């Protein structure tokens, strides 16, 4: 009897908040390559909503809508990570660019410049910027490699199972990430802010900054790679 009532409660939450899944899916889709299928996001989001309905604890202080929104978005991002279709050559080039940026910034004590990265890698300018475009098109920046997920750019709600030590580590990590973002070149910092905090898509950011959408795509990829390079030092110290 109790189980039936509990299941009815879950079903009611899922039915009530199903439109939230659709809203998040289409909002996220507007910021992704055209090759991403919205139905895949919707399916993943519904799984996230089901998990939220089962695990939500009102005593944690967050509203169900807030908690479910984080679970839904996280499930969609997990789906995107699982379906990374980029060729291995793109991943290799990203690693090469990341290492080049780290080397230059350690040596010079400032932001690595495009020309310096290109020279160190021994590639053409066209090849360099094509790689940045490929990064955006394939969505291959795996934050998981260094412990970052996109929720790290904002605020998340605990599911009640995270220990005090883990919470402190997460706070330290987010503070380090915030410092790394603050130290980005001004244009890259602005793009990261508009993309993650204001949640504008690339076309909208291009309009704000009066440059092409493709150039914004390149600069966002460049900011991602620069952050990966800087955060690797933090991870290595742990």
Concise account of the structure shown:
This protein has 238 residues and is an all-alpha fold. Helices cover 72% and strands 0% of the residues. Helix 1 crosses helix 3, helix 7 crosses helix 10 and helix 9 packs across helix 10.
> What is the CATH class of the largest domain?
Mainly Alpha
Helix content: over 70%
How far the N terminus sits from the C terminus, by CA atoms, comes to 49 Å
Mean pLDDT: 79
Which architecture name of the largest domain does CATH use? Up-down Bundle
Oligomeric status of the shown chains?
A: single chain
Instruction: List the uncertain runs.
Output: 1-5, 140-162
- DSSP helical segment count: 10
CATH topology of the largest domain: Butyryl-CoA Dehydrogenase, subunit A, domain 3
Q: What order do the SSEs take from the amino end to the carboxyl end, as H and E?
A: HHHHHHHHHH
Largest sheet composition = none
């Amino acid at each position: 009897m109790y189980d039936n009532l509990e299941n009815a409660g879950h079903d009611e939450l899922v039915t009530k908040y199903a439109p939230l899944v659709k809203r998040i899916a289409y909002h996220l889709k507007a910021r992704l390559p055209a090759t991403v299928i919205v139905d895949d996001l919707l399916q993943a989001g519904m799984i996230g909503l089901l998990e939220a309905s089962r695990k939500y604890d009102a005593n944690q202080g967050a509203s169900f809508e807030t908690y479910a929104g984080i679970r839904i978005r996280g499930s969609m991002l997990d789906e995107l990570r699982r379906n990374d279709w980029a060729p291995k050559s793109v991943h290799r080039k990203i690693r090469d660019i990341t290492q080049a940026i780290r080397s230059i910034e350690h040596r010079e004590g400032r932001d690595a410049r495009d020309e310096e990265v290109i020279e160190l890698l021994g590639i053409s300018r066209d090849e360099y910027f094509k790689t940045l475009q490929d990064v955006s098109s394939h969505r291959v920046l795996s934050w998981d490699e260094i412990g970052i997920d996109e929720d790290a750019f904002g605020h998340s709600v605990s599911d009640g199972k995270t220990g005090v030590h883990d919470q402190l580590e997460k706070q330290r990590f987010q503070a380090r990430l915030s410092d790394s973002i603050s130290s980005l070149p001004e244009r890259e910092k602005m793009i990261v802010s508009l993309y993650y905090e204001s949640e504008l898509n690339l076309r909208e950011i291009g309009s704000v900054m009066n440059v092409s959408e493709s150039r914004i795509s390149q600069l966002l990829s460049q900011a991602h790679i620069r952050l990966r390079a800087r955060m690797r030092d933090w991870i290595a110290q742990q």
